[in-house]
Amino acid sequence: MRKIPSEHSKEADLNTSSAKILRLFNSLILTWTYLFISYCDVDAPDDRSEVIHPATVHEDLINAGYTCWFPEVTNKYSTDLMARALMDSTIFVVFMSTSYANDPTCADIFKYAKLTLGKPMVVIVVGEENFSWRKTNLGLLLPDVSFVNMINSKKQMYDGKFRELLQKLDELMNLATRNVSTESPECFISYCWKNSAQAVALGTRAEDKSLGYGDPREIKNYLEEEGVRCWIDVERIGMNGLFDEIAKGLLEAKMVVACVSDEYVQSPSCKKEFHYACTVLNIPIVLCVVGTGSEWRRSEVGILSVNCPIVSFQLESEAANNRLLELVQDSIQKVGKQDNNTNNNKAAEKTTEEELYELAQRKFLRQIVNYASSHDVEPYPRIFMVDLVKQENQSTTQEDPEQEKQDPEKLKASISMEDKSDAFRLRQYCVYILCECDKGWHTVDEPMMLPEDFGSDLLDQFAPYLCRVTAIMKHSKTMVPNFLSDPDGQQYTKWLFESTAAVVPDFKTGYHQFRELVMNLDIHNKAGKLSRCRQTSGKTIWLCSQHVSEMKVTVLGKDTAPIKQKASVQTAINYTEEWLRKLDPKRLQAKFKSSKKADRKPVGMYIV
Fold this sequence. Notes:
Layout: H1 18-30, E1 35-38, H2 54-63, E2 68-69, H3 79-88, E3 91-96, H4 98-102, H5 104-116, E4 121-125, H6 137-140, E5 148-149, H7 158-172, E6 187-190, H8 197-201, H9 216-225, E7 230-231, H10 233-236, H11 242-252, E8 255-260, H12 262-266, H13 268-281, E9 285-289, H14 300-304, E10 310-312, H15 318-335, H16 338-349, H17 353-373, E11 384-388, H18 391-396, H19 401-405, H20 408-419, E12 429-433, E13 448-449, H21 454-473, H22 487-498, H23 508-521, E14 531-535, E15 540-543, H24 545-550, E16 553-556, H25 561-582, H26 585-590
């Protein structure tokens, strides 16, 4: 997970450039995104000299800015703890090997991540070179996985393999930092991995005569060097899964380059791609003949492609690349620009800052609503933002500035803190109660002053919650926090986003404590001048008066009905106990001395 950029704009001016959008999304997902790393102890020996060690990869991921849950070999973790960490994670990173696949505990974790939780995953292959894990039960769950090959023989190539891992993580999290055009790919590359020398070098099993002169992945590189945007599976597998991404790539492409071969027509996936492009989408197709065979001409693909232009890459030819480029460019021009412009506009609309900001708000609010629902207190707002009090306000509240200057110990402490870039801990802090409108959280009331020791004694305790809400509010367009323009505020946010205390998946207890602190400060029970409302969906939301009038909501009272009901039930129980204590048990026993019929006295006489 990438770290939040440390620079802040004084006016919090949020431009809509792609770079700004990328930084925004990085910041918003920082505090609730991390990697769960799973590996087998057998693949983590004490001697790291001959293997690519999981701990080495973990250390490099930390240095690259990612947050990870990494089980140490020397520690024994409970099943509940590991399951909780896995549920809270965003991406499952597994070091796959034969030892891992045969280990019952590792297999259970893997199945829980993939089958139960459906976690996006990155597979790193380690251990020996036989890839026998493919023949295990776990191998059946990964029939078409794109993995990073870090087997023992790749030790000397570790730097390149680690860059490949970072690329896959970035693509999976939609945080690619390389310079990729945001426009839709024009050309879809359909091919069989067995015909790619690059894929075979990374572990794909080749068949006899499956490798010819042309490599589909090199063909893709050539087209992109000539300015043609291409879609290829190894670079586009993201959060939606392999087949969803393939369908999306075909729908957005203007044409298809099908690298046909005998192996291609034997692959069910390749045949589905070709059939879908040819008979359903009816988009132009250019055939690149790869491999060494010719039996493909007698297949369904050969029949459907009888009218498609063909370029042979089975033997070395200098003219093949130029001929392919001409055919591809001609096909793209014939498709027309109108549909492409529409697709580009839709893609651009989906990546605006406003949508990313609102997405972060909704996701965080769902988590906070869940925490607040289990908080046994009277109804009260749920979203709070902590900010620094402006210096001039802080100085005017001092009753005796001269006495402050004459306090050498405090002055010495202040200088010491400034030298350590921790001066923000000496500042006065305040808290805002925020309206939960999805157009942007904001405040309509004056802030409440937090205790003077908040910066020095309480920041670490509440860092997990403050880090998350600050990551959102620093990009708000509805209010500009002081910490954006204050030098101490910049140190405060820098510490907050880099603090190890903030990297806690579950911060419910800390949130409850902070909420109670705010409630205690609100001695007049103003609740930030917000009203508790019920939406048409039945959900509860806290809104300011302006948004109450604009939205279709029902205003609820700030009563304590749940608590009163609980108290009334307790009173009834006490009264019943008191009545039973006063009842004479002998008089009850006297009624059952004999089984003979007896005159029963009215029940009322026994009531005291």
